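LOG
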Amino acid sequence: MSTILIVSGESSGELYGSLLARALRKKWPDVHIIGIGGQKMDEAGVELISRISYAFGSLKAVASLRKLKEAFDSAVAALRKFKPDVVVLIDYPDFNLKLAKEAKSLGIKVLYYVSPQIWAWRKGRVGKIASLVNRMAVLLPFEEKIYKDAGLPCEFVGHPILEEIEAEISALVGKRATSDRSTSPLADPAGIITPGIRAAAKSALGLDPERPLLSLLPGSRPHELKSLLPIMIEVVKLMKGDHEIQGGREYQFCMPLAPNTDERKYRILLDALNKEGVQIRKGESVRVLAASDLAVVASGTATLQTAFLEVPMVVVYKISPMEFWIGKRIIDVKHISLANILAGKGVATELLQAEANPGEVMKELKKIILDKEYRNTMVNHFREIKRPFTGKKTSQRVADIILEMVIWRK
């Protein structure tokens, strides 16, 4: 029996790992898949050798050194015990590049799936990655050339979050089609998110399909939740008290938490959100965003998810002053959100550090709500961003690459 090891380190990477595991099993039913991940990978049939920790690879990793070492030791032990045909490393560079070195020393082939952000910082890692990895599968179009120029076989495979979006929309279309025989189209052939999809998603969440929805995405890392949840509570209070934007159509509020979030740690803040009428949905970010009319989003993969679902957004981010000071000196990008990076300009407003406060967020939300031209321009940019990704079957293609690598090894 052939074995594949998949290693992820955070919620987004774990989602990609779960989608890949399912795609592998469809092509190769008897494959043995082991890995580091969480609930989604577990449900996808991956035999977990360790669970993810959100502090890995960050400036706050010191607090999790013991867990980090245990996970790494488990991964190395799995390399030696199972001798996997291919190791699939998903982002998570500080951990995964060390593991790639171990795999190479054992003669095990390595596929790096989801590139570290070498275009933003520590660009010198390209050479290191090329020396340790057999192939790259990247999610962003401009990353392909970077690795090919370094002599590493690389392919832009699209982005797996589109798979999750397409699956959710197909489910919504199916539900609506059986209960609503109206002639108005639910989904546009060009992939545009229609009002019918928004209404169907709201109904699926138990919300009023006729009322607008503001979604709140505070990120998945502990420091993101700690710093952004209080801001979002105040934003909801301001929204509820602003008669100009309510205009007779009272807003609804929803917050999709990452599936591996420990809600006990944030119980006081989550209770405060519930008190303000915010519906908390765990692990349902795609459905919530599909239902949303606008969003407040922590910088990260969620901004791309929001853009693909054509939801006008405000991007927020807040870290410690020391981390921000260090970041300003080592990160070489004009924008921090993936949506803006792909657009090559500030399509969605980014509010960082002191600017990430309830008043500034509210000011931008009002602009989106009241300025139709501004809102439509943002959405049109999001559609352009989505274009290069449309039609790619990411997980299927990565599964094919793995099978090719197994054949080479055999």
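LOG (cont.) second protein
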Amino acid sequence: MCLLIAQVLMLIGGLYALIAGKIKLTRTISLHGWRARVAGLLLMAPLPLGLLTGFIIGLLVSADALPQSTLNYVAFLDIFCVVGGLALAVVFALFVRERQVPSP
């Protein structure tokens, strides 16, 4: 349940970044324009990716292409998607944020 809440919050934050073109990921990192929109897409990715992988694994288990015990690892895959999406968004923001030049 907590994982679903995290996915929905990331989806809402990603939609906001995609529409508004601005997002604040940490206290010191805020993005604007295309940078915010790409970070928003990265934040939105875990929910559909988790749904798609769960569907594919369920389909493969029902077709006897994978053993039934594979279903025990779906939650770990979902956690990896959420943490990975958040980490990718923050790492992307670290590399593409606008550098502030100190004024003399």
